[in-house]
Specification:
Elements: E1 2-6, H1 15-27, E2 31-36, H2 38-45, E3 57-61, H3 72-78, H4 83-92, E4 98-101, H5 105-116, E5 126-132, E6 137-141, H6 151-169, E7 175-179, H7 190-199, E8 205-210, H8 214-217, E9 222-224, H9 227-254, H10 262-276, H11 278-281, E10 283-287, E11 293-296, H12 302-317, H13 320-336
Parallel strand pairs: 1-2, 1-4, 2-3, 4-11, 6-9, 7-8, 7-9
Antiparallel strand pairs: 5-6, 5-10, 10-11
Helix pairs in contact: 1-12, 3-5, 4-5, 6-7, 6-13
Length: 344
């Protein structure tokens, strides 16, 4: 599997991106194409401790890169030779099976849309992230690609999220919930009220409205929302996870005698940290495009980059996009025939 990696994307690039690529190829059979400033990338690859010699890693030069503070659409239009544009184009031209970037997430999405295009019938792509729960995991989408949505967009998100969880997490019939302010179907804003009626007849395992607390409880396998609310939930969840880990550490410091029990608790603490650490997930897939694009955290370390590459390869090996295109086209036929009610 050939994975194109934006070597210039992220707060600590290209050092951690190159290091992450090396870790990834050592754990997989993937070939990595490092996209970006070839001089800077080669300097990282040539460091004595990089251990990159003989590995299936190549470099694709890109003369520009898009910064975190740049306006995404404008930057993508103006910087046609950016590492993001070149990486996304490699996938579009079938020279790579997936693209990974820890850079400007808006620009990553815009580059993927520009070069890979949307899957047939998909109204809008969506970014999906996976949360740990008491029951396993829960996918939330959209978490930032679309701040304003129509009911049909959320209907498509629900179908795409359901297929993703079935194929990638082996959940046979994922429970899909609509994020709202109450479980009752009469609660919510205009968007959720209209979307509720669409999801009931969308051919998925729709369980109705769910509240924010239902996500960590594991009461749904997929939760759909517009990108504005979804991104707030994502950032809040990340903040709570970091806070809890820091509180545990501070409590140990406040009670010196508790350090005696640390050897017995260490395995449990490591497992807890692993469950809530974004680096373990690697990145968030952009669903609905005709290709594979994984958007990693801007603060990604080498471990996160490695896991993002492995996740992208796993996604590319599955039949997710073919199934999404088939189900969305079937859904749209039903919408046109009036089977699913309104399709605003």
């Amino acid at each position: 599997m050939r994975i194109a990696l934006d070597a210039m994307g992220g707060d600590l690039a290209p050092q951690v991106t190159v290091e992450g690529a090396i870790l990834a190829v050592k754990e997989s059979r993937h070939e990595i194409i490092l996209v970006g400033d070839q001089d800077k990338i080669n300097r990282e690859l040539g460091k004595p401790r990089s251990y990159a010699k003989g590995l299936p890693i190549s470099v694709k030069h890109a003369s520009e890169f898009i910064g975190m503070d740049e306006q995404p659409a404008q930057a993508v239009r103006q910087k046609k030779d950016s590492s993001m544009a070149v990486g996304a184009k490699l996938v579009a031209d079938k020279q790579a099976e997936a693209f990974v970037s820890a850079g400007n997430s808006g620009a990553s999405m815009a580059s993927a849309l520009l070069h890979m295009r949307r899957l047939p019938g998909v109204s809008r792509p969506a970014i999906l992230t996976v949360f740990p729960t008491l029951e396993g995991v829960c996918a939330l989408l959209d978490v930032g690609a679309n701040v304003d949505c129509k009911p049909k967009n959320l209907q498509h998100f629900a179908v795409m999220g359901s297929i993703y969880m079935k194929e990638l997490f082996n959940i046979e019939n994922p429970r899909v919930g609509l994020l709202s302010i109450g479980e009752e179907p009469t609660k919510g804003n205009e968007l959720t009220l209209a979307t509720h009626s669409l999801l009931k007849s969308s051919g998925i395992n729709y369980i109705g409205n769910v509240e924010g607390r239902d996500i960590p409880k594991g009461n749904a396998d997929v939760v759909v929302s517009d990108g504005f609310i979804g991104n707030i939930v994502l950032k809040f969840g990340e903040g709570v996870a970091e806070m809890m880990l820091k509180l545990v550490k501070e409590e140990f410091k406040a009670h010196p005698i508790s350090w005696v029990s640390l050897p017995f608790l260490w395995a449990a603490l490591k497992d807890l940290r692993k469950k809530v650490d974004y680096a373990e997930r690697g990145g968030a897939p952009l669903l609905g495009i005709d290709g594979v694009c994984l958007i990693a955290h801007g603060r990604s370390n080498a471990k996160a980059i490695k896991n993002a590459i492995l996740a992208a390869g796993n996604f590319a090996e599955k039949n997710v996009n073919v199934e999404i295109a088939q189900e969305i086209q079937k859904l749209e036929e039903n919408n046109r025939n009036g089977v699913n009610g309104q399709n605003d």
